[in-house]
Amino acid sequence: MKHGKEKAVYYGKSYLTALLFLLPLLAMFLLFFLIPFISGINMSFYHYNLADPSDTYFVGFENYKYFLFTKEIPVMIDGEPVLGADGEPLMVANNSFYSFWYSLLYTFLFALVIVPVSIFLPLLLASFLKKKPWGYRLWRSLIFIPSIFAVSATGTAFVYLFSNSEDGFINALFNTHVEWLNTPLTAWFVILLLCLYGIGANFIILSAGLENVPKSLYESSLIDGCNSWQKFLYVTLPGIKYQLSVCLFTTLIGYMNLYGQNRVLTMGGPSDFAHPERPGVTHTVIYVIQDYLTGSGKFSLMGRISAVCIVFGLFVAALSSIRLFVDRDKKGGNKHAKEYREYFAKKETHPAQ
Amino acid sequence: MPKNTVSISRKKKPIRLNKLAVTIFFAIFCFLWIFPVLYLVNGSLKSSLDWATNPRSFFPDFGYTFENFKILFVGGDQNGAYDYGLDAQPITAWILNSLIASLIHTVLYLVIACLAAYAFTFLKFKGRDALFALLLVSMAIPGVMLTTPQFENVLKLGLSLNIWAIILPGLGGISGVYLIRQFFKGVPNSLVESAKIDGASNFRVFCQVVLPLAKSVLFVQGLFSFMSVWNDYAWAQIVLGYGDKKLWTLQLGLTYLVDVNKGQLGSTGVTMAASIISMLPVFIVYLFAERNIVEGVALTGVKN
Q1: CATH hierarchy code of domain B91-299
Q2: Where exactly are the structural domains of chain B?
Q3: How far off is chain A from B104, nearest CA to CA, in Å?
């Protein structure tokens, strides 16, 4: 009995201290994460008008259907559908449907290009930096620094470097007149260049990873007669596996949320003139969401916008959950034995634990 | 071993050559890499007359000048030939808004996250690891799912068009707690234990033992937090963008300047000057804490 009571007092006291330390975070987490998270899901099932609460009613999956499956909507004037000559309501293409699917397609296609590039380029640079060139701290800083600047600031440089006018820097330099930001492919190319300005973190992480690959492994691979490609494949890559997965997934998730670059460079354009119902060719999903949230009808469209956010959020979450499989530790007998040895070594040095 | 040393000494010459080649590579690459930033600095110092009459050349014809910065703050010369309607931009308000919001956010988040990280590292209570794991799961939930309800949230808190709308929502983030905890784990437990045996309270241990040892993580997380508000465009556009220009942050103002000046060559330098101003604070922080920041970023890629 006595023993139990003491324990309870001990826990009670430590709970109180812990609570004091954790309270600010937990309060903020509750207020700005958990509550909005739940209310966002709730919102997506309503016609939700922030400006006029009486205009809020349950609509089930209508919001989701509207964006995901409704290709055509009736033409409405004063809330009444307009009838055609045959007595049927006139239908027009539902821009929201096309906006969502095409921006998703563009986002995804761009990620297919930018993600490998933002892993390979920093990896290449990091492996060069490992040779410790003179002034390597300066080079490291120069490569890292652009990634801490705001995209709108570095983007300004790219707006004028790749200006559509023939007086733009690149056009003047090569005496060409390419409308860089007005042509779909070159516009995406400039966005890609601006995105590369953000590889700084990947570069530092991979650099540190390369430094930490045990030297003894390289030496023994030298004795085994490995050539440099084999060394890279069997020593370096396994040695930085974790860093690669960190970079891969933060980059992937990061570019799923691509917005600033295309906002400052192209404003989502150029328009797809052959298909007026589709969004501008540099629209990403976040661009579409931002368009709705800063547009004039935003307050009455909260439910619909929430639905897009949740569908896209689930899509991104599914992508990031792949990481669980990539990072899982395959535990063979050898690994267990190693853990066991380490556990005992620890116990001997710190008997208190 | 002896065999190894021989092979290395035989290879000494190519290593030296290698080093030179890599240095030359980095010199060329870094020049091209940093060129857009140089272009901005150079362009911001070219007068509007220069930009309007000779946009094609990199160097100015009429010498370098701080005219563009002056135009930004006090407006263009109303009677001059090169007044590009840039008289009434409230850039001082933009800078102050951004600075105040970023600083308050950084300080608040550092306090909140350090306290929590201390509890998760040095305090023993039942369910600690389970709670932490639960919080970590939240990091996997994409932020986009929170956009609309967060907007509703700040409106309901009465923060419509208020600077606190960009300060508060980030405070519930877990990634900083995770990073700081990684650092705290490097503080020897024996130090904390012995301080406690000497009768120090947890709060004293936190302030006088743990924090001084984890100074570098404060720099790193501080820069990250500062950047998250200072560099933010999307969220500020949602909660402040529909308000009066005076309420905007610097990034909103800068993007606005880029948009309105796109077709006007003469005001190119002014836009560039604004973007230089937006780069300065993070650049200065980086200069002072380069080593710590590089170390901290590297730490984000270390398995716990």
Answers
A1: 1.10.3720.10
A2: 2-74, 91-299
A3: 15
